Amino acid sequence: MVFKMKSLRLWLVLPLCVLLFAEVASAGQANVFIYHRFDENRYPSTNISTEIFAEQLAYLKQENYQVLSFGEVVRRIQQGESLPEKAAALCADDAYQSFADGAMPIVREYGYPITLFVNTDAVGSSGYLDWQTIKGLHAEGVGIENHTASHPYMVEMEEGESFAAWRERIKKDILKSQQAFSQQLGYQPKSIAYTFGEYSDEVIGLVKELGFESAFAQQSGVVHDKNDLFTLPRFPMGGPYATLKGFIDKLKMKPLVVLQQEPVSPLIYKENPPELLLQLETADVDMGRVNCFVQGENSCTVAAVIGRPGWYRVIAEQPLSGRRNKYTLTVPGKKGGWHWFSQPWVNAERPALQSSLDVKKGSAAAFQADVGKAGEAVTADQ
Q1: Kind of pairing between the strands at 115-118 and 37-38
Q2: pLDDT (tens digit, 0 to 9) for every residue of the chain, 382 residues total?
Q3: Same CATH topology for 3-21+259-381 and 29-253?
Q4: Homologous superfamily assigned to 29-253
């Protein structure tokens, strides 16, 4: 994939005199990494060599990072406790056999916590772990969490399916997996990883209804003390990103804290390219040097919204290509380092949407009309 970038200088045309929270009180964060396959070279996009994985864990130890379990990360956010300034968390999705064979000997060597998100229908199939192995991993302290039963496209309706039927199908799929965990492990997980990293307002509402306390996606980003617990980011470690340098670069990233955004859902609906409005905590960053990335032969811009201090409009110059894409913002910190935020986008063929989304789009349009054309607030350098 080709990434194009624009470095932007923000110029306010009018004089100006940081999810819904006050200013972030601490610099605590957790850089979370997601893995899939280990030493399975025939699946390059989701694979990492165990040699590089070992180097990454060695670096964590060498640099005195505190490796937290997912449960501890979530607990601290729930209870309003600060995260450490140098913290990481590790997880693997899909419960492939190579996790036990390749990753676990290295994890045991360092004694780090790690979480495995399991899609239960695949358990015992060729190339996947069986329940006996998963029970053993759980007994030795590996966190076992939910990744649905059948690994469906959670935001997509099947052909001819109504919204109500879609909702019932996804609900039954998740409940089926929860029942399997109850039968095999004696508990039901409280955290879920969205399949393919895809979620929506409707999916978030459903997992909350089913009793989950947190949910992880696959957009890159840094977890911080004020994160929305149902859109938690993770840095993928597969394919070209699965290197020691890539790991170190992501470890050094800091969060670009989003206080509010519109929309929250990554579903592309009616408008492509989608418009993203962000209220950012900007005290520690130099927004005059913000970078905007989008996948494909495309570019994106960031503009200060006139009349709304702290608000920025992000939009690509051309329609987003592919099923999954994202806007990624990186901003240099005033005290050094880089801050990161990524918004995923999903261009589903049959998106599962409530009719109320039209109202949301109308509200967003009204908001934009109120603040004026934000695009006039910046000039961009190639």
Answers
A1: unpaired
A2: 443 444 333 333 222 222 322 233 345 899 999 999 999 999 999 999 999 999 999 999 999 999 999 999 999 999 999 998 899 999 999 999 999 999 999 999 999 999 999 999 999 999 999 999 999 999 999 999 999 999 999 999 999 999 999 999 999 999 999 999 999 999 999 999 999 999 999 999 999 999 999 999 999 999 998 899 999 999 999 999 899 999 999 999 999 999 999 999 999 988 999 999 999 999 999 999 999 999 988 999 999 999 999 999 999 999 999 999 999 999 999 999 999 999 999 999 999 987 534 333 333 443 343 333 333 333 222 2
A3: no
A4: Glycoside hydrolase/deacetylase (3.20.20.370)
Tell me if 264 sits within 8 A of 201, measured CB to CB. Answer: yes
Q: pTM (2 decimals)?
A: 0.85
CATH architecture under which domain 3-21+259-381 falls: Sandwich (2.60)
Tokens of 216: 């992880």
Q: To 5 degrees, how large is the angle CA 255–CA 257–CA 261? A: 135
Strands 290-295 and 324-332: antiparallel
